Amino acid sequence: MEFQDYYKILGLERSANADQIKTAYRRLARKYHPDVSKEPDAEARFKEMQEAYEVLRDPEKRAAYDQLGSEWKSGQQFHPPPDWGSGFEFSGRPAGGGRAGRRRAGASAGGGTFAEEDFSDFFSSLFGGGSPFAGATGRAGGRDHHARVDITLEEAYRGTSRTLELKRPEVKPDGTVELHSHTVRVTIPAGVTEGQLVRLAGQGEPATGGGSAGDLYLEVHILPDRSFTLENRDVTLTFPVAPWEAALGASVTVPTLGGAVEMRIPPGAQSGQKLRLRGRGLPGQPPGDQYVQLKVVLPRADSAEAKAIYEQMRTKLNFDPRASGAR
Amino acid sequence: MVRVTQVLEAHVLSEGDWIAASEICQLCRLDLDAVLELAQLGVMSSRERVPGEWQVPATALPRLRVVGRLMRDLGVNVSGAALAVELLEAQRELEVRLRRLERLVADY
Q1: Given pLDDT bands bounded at 50, 70 and 90, which one contains residue A306?
Q2: What is the pLDDT of residues A54-64, one digit of tens each?
Q3: What residues contact residue B25 under an 8 Å CB cut-off, 6+ apart?
Q4: How far is A197 from chain B (nearest CA, A)?
Q5: Does the domain made of A6-80+94-129 have the CATH classification 1.10.287.110?
Q6: A219/B62 touch (CB, cutoff 8 Å), yes or no
Q7: pLDDT higher than 50, residue A301
């Protein structure tokens, strides 16, 4: 595993006092908080900062970390010394089994499901399960009952399923807690929209004392689509048409989320004009619509014949696109 | 090969679904006073089904989770987090409109 220089991460000298540590963390947190920041690596940076702050704000952990010495550099290969943690007295709960650290994710899964990650292996080896510090962190054990699921627009239209790995704490006879995971397949119904929540009854944190378990909430995010843009339940498609199709009207085949349909372009249509296919958006009560935005594409004047046609239009049509009402 | 032990049906929460304020507190790691203050500030609506048992719309949950994170991670108070979340949402809406307009311009 790689050494983490917590002072460097927070931009601090090793002599920094508690107030300086807090100020540095707050200042960087405001810059890199994933809800606020536009930085591409904000989430990773914020996680590093939280880990660094978790150690440096705690006098016991900081003292132990400082004992490693100041010669280490970030990224250097590192193994905890054999006598790690000896000679310290610790506050907090006794050490628990399993890999501790600060597990907050209630669910994780491959295939685009969001899950908050643990702290680094470096942190876990020094302050996680099996170390004298395990359980001493004030935030250990807090579990989210919330996960994010990314789906495509087509999946939102048809409904989909995702496999999630849910982690549950289990109290062992010796009082320590272990996380056990089980895998579930979740069926997400057709017609979910961006940001909508789905509830999985009874899949949250198990109750202590005989009550019913909490629920797990999944927040659905619809990935951008190459063809369609989504607004609530309505979708918009930019659709290229030839000038004569727009001018004379035409019957064309248009893709929709549910498959291709025939659509009539009225004579005299203009580029940018939107035509509505009622009920062809995302399903729901009522279902959304599909808007087809026409984009007139001009043929190139790259042959003598094409040039002749354009010349003929110029001389015969008496058309000025900049005249009022021309569009 | 992933072994699936259970198949679950998801219930989509939409307009008209309400969640107990106590559940919101647990999910967003907010205390009840903060949730009620957020309702007073207009961040979301609330209703008292029976005296002392408050509920908030399920659709407010993502917004309240952001409020909870901002309060915990940045040390802002309730009204500061309420203001921040509204400004962030306004910013996102403008960004979506900007992207839509940019795409429109690129199409021409």
Answers
A1: very high
A2: 889 888 888 88
A3: B31, B32, B35
A4: 5
A5: yes
A6: yes
A7: yes
